[in-house]
Structure formats: C-alpha cells, structure tokens
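Please go through this chain and its backbone structure tokens and walk me through the local backbone shapes. Keep your notes short.
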Amino acid sequence: MIKKNIFILLFLVIVNSVSYAASQKSELAEKYKAMNSINNKASLQRGAKYFVNYCSGCHSLKYMRMSTLAEDLNIEEVVFSQNLLFSNKKIGETMTIPMSESDAILWFNAIPPDLSLTARSKGPDYIYSKLNTYYEDDSSPTGFNNIALPNTSMPNILAGLQGGQKLELDDKNNPVGFIKISKGTHNDLEYKQLTNDITNFLVYVSEPAKLRRYSMGFWVLMFIFIFTIIAYYTKKEFWKDVH
C-alpha cells in the first residue's frame, strides 16, 4: 500500500512538473499571433517564394498542384516555371521533395513532415510562433532549439535572415523572451512580416478552395440581397388587392 502511494505521488509530481514546464514554454510561444488573410494575394505570392526557397528542400506539399498554385495566386506559368520550379519538375506536378526518407533519417533523425494540412491541424499561430521562437542552444545537434517545439530536430533555416538570439530566463529559469546577439539580413519587423507571409501561404495551401469561396461570397450575398428586394415587391404586387 505504501509503495503504491509513493508511486502515485511520484507520478503526480512528474506530471505536474511536465505540465508546468509546458505551460511556461507555451506562454512565451503564445505571444506570437499570426495575422493571416488569404485574400492578400501579395502576401501569398511572397509566402510561396519564401517557402520554395527556404522550406521546400525538406518539406513537401503533396496535395498542392503547382499549376493550381500559379492560377490561384495570379502568377503566370512562365514566371512560375522560371522562379519557383527546380530540378526536372513540371508545373502540372504536386509539390514533392527529392530527398529520400533514408537521407532524412540520417541527417535529421526524422522524416520532415508534409506541411499541406499543418495550418488546419495545428493552426496558423503554431506555424508563426515556431518560425519566430528559435534560439541558439549549444546542447542541440543543430545548434538551435525552439520554444514552440522543444528539442526539435529541424534546424533554423531562416537564421541568416532572422539573426542570432539567445533565450532570456528569469530568476527561476523560466523563459521570458529573447536577447539579440547578432543581426540578420532582415530587421525584426521585416522578419515577422516574412514569417507571417509563409504562415499565410500555408493557411491557403491547407484549403485552397477557401480562396474561391471567399471570392464568391460577395456575389452570393449580393444575389441574395437583390433577390430579397425583388421577392418583397413581387409579394406586395400579388397581395395588394387582398384585404
């Protein structure tokens, strides 16, 4: 009985410790909120450019066909092919990656996930916070760690743009912010805009049909409004002699 109680006590202590640590980590990550709008075509175009240049070497978008992407984002296929197509891919194909699973496991100890539905499954704030909460960590194999996803095997591919930063801790060793230790090619405002564009792009990719639904929504509401007026006056005409 005593052993059982001790076991339960230890279990509760461990659970509470993990929960407390997770709450501290998420508290800092939750400060980063994405401002996404899939109606912002310029943001989606920039996000597509950044994703292809910095993310598509490891992460696929296997449900996204490049010809559909070019059409939705108003990018001419010639321009798309010249700037956003690499290797021997054709514009009618989906956005897969050339890296094999064996190489991924060797290099990262894990297979980089497909990001087609990440914005739907985890939310845009998760993506945005992860891209903004990398910090230098000498104990990590990649030299970086992340508040939103602790002990991630994903390197900070945007480090050159963001610049270096260290985790700032309070007196109780709880993370409270970041200390800039080196400059990147982008200042803080520009970097946040860049990561917001990538997030916005992944929100679009997670449900491309939403872009068309939004564009049709105005005309549907306009039709309903006009039809309501016509129906109202038609009803008045039919019932004007009824008392």
